[in-house]
Amino acid sequence: EIVMTQSPVTLSVSPGERATLSCRASQTISSDLAWYQQRPGQAPRLLIYGASTRATGIPASFSGSGSGTEFTLAISSLQSEDFAIYFCQQYHNWPLTFGGGTKVDIK
Amino acid sequence: DVQLVESGGGLVQPGGSLRLSCAASGFTFSRYWMQWVRQVPGKGLVWVSRIRTDGSTTMYADSVKGRLTISRDNAKNTLYLQMNSLTAEDTAIYYCARETVVQGNYYMDVWGTGTTVIVSS
Q1: Which of A73, B51, B73, B87 could form a disulfide with A21 if both were Cys (CB 3.0 to 4.6 A apart)?
Q2: Closest Cα to residue A34, out of A97, A100, A104, A103?
Q3: Close Cβ partners of A29 (under 8 Å, ≥ 6 residues apart)
């Protein structure tokens, strides 16, 4: 099973600032990575797939990068609705596995 | 609107059974593989199971194999998860999700709101 490790666990950012989240895979997964956002009390929402392709309706303020084992999600200018938990997920091998999440909260 | 709505969660005793349902609307349900993912409140997401469009292929996480069974009724646009021999470790919010494949990328692009299962005596 591929283990996904996210860092940091919590990221405190001021509104309007940039946030950078990291995700590492325990073995190479090419670009088979998705990012999801989960707001409190809500279901996850797909942000990025293929490591860097934004899903339908996702603003350009979200960008993904990386391949192999190291991946990054960047949020260029945090809005109030962006304060949430972010999960990465690999689909290179079964079982699908998720990272433990990064909580982005208001500084 | 594309929508998934789960139901069937609740409180059940250890060793008991429960059947979750996921009603799909707004898209051609029979054309999509479907998944179940669970989440202990405040914790991460864990993939549980997956089913092919016609129900002929199923996959399970090792932790649920032999106890949970995924199925679907395309005529009713409904996905199911039969849960048997439940333990406290099965306590979680259960989400159904639609799987979409684009150029070799598999991702879950539509999620339900979740249904809560609590296994406790």
Answers
A1: A73
A2: A97
A3: A2, A68, A69, A90, A92, A93
Q: Collapsing DSSP states into helix, strand and coil, what is residue A67?
A: strand
CB contact under 8 A, B113 and A44: no
Got the DSSP string for A9-50?
SEEEE-TTS-EEEEEEESS--TT-EEEEEE-TTS--EEEEET
- Whether residues A94 and B114 touch (CB distance < 8 A) is answered with no
Coil/strand/helix, residue B89 = helix
Q: Which residue of A34, A42, A97 is in closest CB contact with B107? A: A34
Q: Which residue has the higher pLDDT, B103 or B12?
A: B12
CB distance A97–B47 less than 8 Å? yes
Residues of A in contact with B27 (CB under 8 A): none
Average pLDDT, whole number, for chain A?
Answer: 96
Model confidence pLDDT, tens digit, residues A95-107: 999 999 999 998 8
Comparing CB atoms, the residue among A42, A95, A101 nearest residue B44 is A101
Share of chain B above pLDDT 90, in %: 93
